[in-house]
Structure formats: structure tokens, C-alpha cells
């Protein structure tokens, strides 16, 4: 059976969402990043970085949420992993792009703009992060002007990976980017997304 290591309050949110999209049964180790459980020799043998998520799929060990989601979608012959070579390539393009352009930047911005207690916020850090976030949003807006989805004519692992990483964007005003705004909410209105989000917010 599939086992997912990592709390919904981490990047494991994306993997939990994918598992729900695929209708998979799994065991769940609800561990936060940097929790004591992630520092044990047993876990470090699975993921030497001590990060989450990691999966154990009947003995196959894999880490990094984007790679995990690509693997699960392809393994289970899901339409979320496009059969078309060019659409497949776009899934990889957007997933890798997000990890470089938005993953840490959106977290840093939201933390220092709103999420942290006011005394702990650093406006200069938020501003610097926003100077990276806004141009990346421009890129997404332009792409979503041409197509309602990132990698072909339907929702795919590309949309799940990028929208999953942009969970924190749900809490900020993105109305300047109407196509991005609409796409983000289309993605997060999916039943599997709502399930994953409920595990994080309840």
C-alpha cells in the first residue's frame, strides 16, 4: 500500500490532493516539516534530506512533491498525466518553473505580509518577495489567457502541481490577474482539492 509521509500543512498537501484525484487508499504519517519524526535515522534512510513529503509505494521510495505527483499520475494511467508528448512536456515545464519562480517566494510573501504575528513580520522581506511573485503571476496570466489550463485542453498534473503550490495565493488579492484568479479557484474547487484543503484547515 502507498504510504505518504508529510502533513497537509506542508508540501505534502499536493501529494494528498493527487492521491484523492486518483482515488488511492493510503496510509498517512501526518508529520510537519522539521518535526522530530523527520530527524530519526529511520526516516533519514528514506529521505536523507529529512524533508516531507516522501512516499513509500510498496517499497519504492520517492521524495519531492512534483516528482511524486508525476509518478503517481503516470503509474495509475490517469488522464491527469497527458498521453500527448508535448502536453507531457508542458507538465514538466510548469512544475519545474513553479519550483524556481514561486514556491518559496509566495510562502515568504504571505508569511511576512499577513500570516505571521504582526510583531514578527518584516515588510522589507515581504516587498522583496513580492517583486519576484508579481512577474511570475504575469507569466501565468499570459499563459492562461491563451488556454484555460496549463498543459493541454484539460486539467492535468501541471495545474495540480502549480495550483497546489499556490495554496497561499488563495488568501491574497490576485484580481489584477483575472485569468490566474479564475484558474486558481477552478483548480481548488475540485472535490479532491477541497478534501486536501480540509485536512489542512480543520
What is the secondary structure topology, with strand pairs?
Elements: E1 2-5, H1 12-22, E2 26-29, H2 41-46, E3 54-57, E4 60-63, H3 65-75, H4 85-101, H5 103-115, H6 123-146, H7 157-165, H8 178-188, H9 191-201
Parallel strand pairs: 1-2
Antiparallel strand pairs: 1-3, 3-4
Helix pairs in contact: 1-3, 1-7, 1-9, 4-7, 5-6, 6-8, 7-8
Structure, explained:
There is one protein chain. With 202 residues, the protein is of the alpha+beta class. The chain has helices spanning 12-22, 41-46, 65-75, 85-101, 103-115, 123-146, 157-165, 178-188, 191-201, and strands at residues 2-5, 26-29, 54-57, 60-63.
The CATH topology of the largest domain is: Glutathione S-transferase Yfyf (Class Pi), Chain A, domain 2
Number of helices: 9
Shape: globular
Major pleated sheet: 4 strands, mixed
**Radius of gyration, taken over Cα atoms and rounded to an integer in Å:** 17 Å
Give the CATH class of the largest domain: Mainly Alpha
Straight-line N-to-C gap: 26 Å
Helicity range of the residues?
Answer: 55-70%
Number of strands: 4
Percent strand: 5-15%
How many domains in all?
A: 2
Q: Structural class per helix/strand content?
A: alpha+beta
